[in-house]
Amino acid sequence: MIRFAIGTALLTISVAASAQDTRPVLWDQVRAGMTVSEVRAAYPERGGKVKWHKAKQTEIEDVTILEGCEAEVEIHHESGTVDAVKVKGKGSLGGRCSDKVLGALSAKYGQPMVQRAREQSILAREGEIVVWNKDGITMRFKQFTNGAFGGAGLGQSSWELAYTASASEIAL
Questions:
Q1: By Cβ atoms counted within 10 A, which residue in 69, 98, 126, 153 is the most buried?
Q2: Whole-angstrom Cα distance, residue 105 to residue 129?
Q3: Does 62 or 91 have the greater pLDDT score?
Q4: From edge to edge, which strands make up the β-sheet containing 159-165?
Q5: What is the pLDDT of residues 14-29, one digit of tens each?
Q6: pLDDT band at 166 (very low <50, low <70, confident <90, very high)
Q7: Is pLDDT at 84 greater than 70 in this prediction?
Q8: Signal sequence span per UniProt (predicted)?
Q9: Residue range of the domain that includes 67
Q10: Strand, coil or helix: what is 88?
Q11: Domains of the chain: total
Q12: Nearest residue to 98 (alpha-carbon basis) of 46, 161, 43, 45
């Protein structure tokens, strides 16, 4: 708490503890482990662009990722705290945005840790997977390809990026 006087008035300003927050940043202002109330304070519902879905997730629409490339962001907090953020690119002609986003991620984070040639399933859309692990955050990028249920194109997302905090303890 900081107190100072302006003229005859005494002002008190509370300094938020967030300046000392060491939880890893997943995306924008979202930190791993944030409570639902912290997420809602950072992203209040307004104009249909931010939607709160009970305690499960917060959704942000029409987020510009790169020029000409927009996405929908899902902040997952079903357990009461943020455990993941998923960014889903909106459809683009021939998947051009997925290529632009992948290039930008590679330029920012360097050579990926893992690159799988293809992920295929009868029940899920197929795609290529790229993974980075940086500063306690795992980023899993899936670039959708044409499959039985659709791939890149105007009608569906051509890419998806999931952010999670990297496991610091593992019982394996």
A1: 98
A2: 13
A3: 62
A4: 50-53, 57-66, 69-76, 84-89, 159-165, 137-144, 127-134, 114-119
A5: 444 456 889 999 999 9
A6: confident
A7: yes
A8: 1-19
A9: 34-165
A10: strand
A11: 1
A12: 161
d(CA 160, CA 54): 23
Greatest pairwise CA separation for the chain in angstroms: 72
**44 in a domain, yes or no?**
yes
In a domain, 26, yes or no: no
* Cβ–Cβ < 8 Å for 26, 32: yes
Does residue 24 belong to any structural domain of this protein? no
Residue 147 resides in a domain:
yes
| Length, in residues, of the chain | 172
What single-letter DSSP state applies at residue 104?
Answer: H
The winner for highest mean pLDDT among 43-47, 79-83, 98-102, 155-159 is: 79-83
What tokens does 165 get?
């905090």
CA 31 to chain CA mean position, Å? 10
Question: Of the ranges 7-11, 50-54, 117-121, 150-154, which is most confident?
Answer: 50-54
List the structure tokens of 8. Answer: 């005859």
